[in-house]
Every structure is written in C-alpha cells, then in structure tokens.
Amino acid sequence: MSRFFSSKFDNLTPYTPGEQPKIKDLVKLNTNESPFPPSKKAIRYAAEAAKELQLYPDPTCQALTQKAAEIWGVEADEVLITNGSDEILNFAFMAYCDEKTPAVFPDITYGFYKVFAQLLNVPYEEIPLRDDFTIDTQDYINVGKTVFIANPNAPTGIPLSLSEIEEIVKSNPNNVVVVDEAYIDFGGESAVPLTKKYDNLLVTQTFSKSRSMAGARLGLGIGSKALIQDLNTIKYSTNPYNINKMTMAAGLGALEDEAYTKRNCKTICKNRTYTKKMLRKMDFETTDSTANFIFAKHKVLSGGMIYARLREKGILVRHFDGERIKDYNRITVGTKKEMQAFLRAVSEILEENK
Ligand code: PMP
Hints:
This protein is of the alpha/beta class and about 350 residues long. Helix content is about 35%, strand content about 15%.
C-alpha cells in the first residue's frame, strides 16, 4: 500500500475471485461458469461489432435493453444493463445504502455484498442462516434496512420461494430489497413479475452463467422506472459507456437464441441430479441446490483436504475458509464428462483415505 491510499479504505478487504489458472486439461469447476460456449449468434454479432471498435458504444444500450425488456416481460425503462451483475449490485449499494440506511444480508452469501458495503463505508448487518443453511424469512420482515438476498443463495444453492420473497418485499415498503438472481435459470422462481407490483424491488440477473458469457461481463437490473432512473444516475456519474460494443452485440445475439440457453440449462440440471446422486452414494451430504453448482460435505473427510487432493488431480473446485462452511466444497456443474472425471477423482481420494 502506498502512503497516499485514503484512510477511508482502512477496513476494506477486497473480494477474492476464484482462480483462473491456465493449466492444461484442468477440469475447471470453481467459478460457476458454463461449460458450453456462447451461442453462435452471440459470437457472430460480437465479431461484427469488433469492426467498429473505433467508436464509443451506445451509452443507452438501446437495442439490447429493448430485447431484454421483451424477454423478461417488462418495459424498456424498467431495465438497466450493466457490466456484469456485480456492477448493478455496486450501483444498488451506492444508491440505496448510507449511514442512515444500512445494508443487511445473510452471514453466508455472495462475498461481494460485504466488500461493497466496506468500499462505500456503509454499515451492514449479517444475519446468520439457520443450521441447515436456509434463510429464516422472519429475520427480514420489516427489517428497516436495504436487503440483499441471493436467490438461490450462494454458495449453498438453496432457494427461497416466490411467496417468501414477496413477504420480505411487502413488509419493507420503505426500503429497497435487492434479489440477486444470478443462478435463477437453473431451477428457482424469478421475482421479476413482482417488480410490477412493488416499487421497492430490484431484481438482478446475469449473462455469466446460463448464457455462457462470463468473459463478456454483462448483467442487468429490473425494477420500477423510478429505481432504474436512480441507478442510471449512478451509471452516468461513474461510467456511461459501461458496456463495450462487442459485449453489447453478443448479449443481443444470446437473447435472440433463448432456445440454446434453455437447452443448456436443462443439461446442467440433469448433470446436477446425476452428480448429487453419485456424491450421496459416496457418503457426501449435499444441499438442495437449484443453482449450477453443488455444495457438498463428506461425512468424514475434511473439505480442505478434498479440495487440495482434487487440485493435485487436475480438478478445481471452490473451497471457502469460513468457520461454518469449511468442510464443504462448491462444485460447479459442468458437462457429464467433466462430472464423471470429478467423481472418479473423488472416489480415488476416498480409496486413498480408507
Ligand atoms: N451474484 C452472485 C450470487 C454470484 O455468485 C455472482 C458471480 N460470482 C455474481 C452475482 C456476479 O456475477 P457477474 O458479475 O458475472 O454477473
């Protein structure tokens, strides 16, 4: 750290992204990416857009916003396209949290919420999940703070039902409730239709997972026109050209090929069921994940050891050090072949430790 770094960041611990190692033949199941390439249409549109990189991109993201509105069944002025969903979450922290309005989120959830709160110096409260890692919705009823809930939650993959989400939103009419639906396309029930009914609900989604575009950085927020206006004010005060031309074009291509996305989600769900079944046969406990990952703990062996041995065998999963979850690993669901390689390696590790 230099001697010039502002003391306002004294309490900031930056987010640690999952590794992106360049190891040959690595089975990469650590950052919940899609194992499938982007839609061919997305690739073609991005390549065409590359020919015009001398020009700034459209700051209003008009064509993509219009198409997204159509797909999600809302109006164009109820949508804001961002640089990954991380950016809309950052905007929401900037717009809706301050000294008087702290943030609140579960103690075990997407690690970036805490980082945004620290970065922006806003107070935050972490509410413990129940012992079975479920969210007790009662904790969020009339809570009087800006609520951030990942649905399904990460890294557990456990969802709340739409009626539970509605209860939270309804009971906090004077606070914004942000529902982070990064993994919603793999089984959960989206709260987007509720944005018509509640002016305090902001739903965020991403192109990183189900649409195979993590490398492009594209996300979006859906909420009332007034919320989207607020978030636009933040956007135009930070980075008006937040979406580059190629990403914008690729996003449009992806949305014009929803059948491809749906097919891939279906395959991931099938592979998730298969992997979970096999893990349970090998004495693992798993949560009921509706995401593109499995959260699993062996009845005897430690999570850290399994993570390290898998890594030596060329299989990368994600391990977190948090006290309550240190015996778990989060395993991204990939292709059937990748899951078979993972399961083979797990079975070898169990054999070695008999
Ligand atoms: N929310 C959750 C719960 C996530 O796990 C992630 C991905 N790490 C994000 C948001 C952000 O994803 P992106 O910025 O790629 O859209």
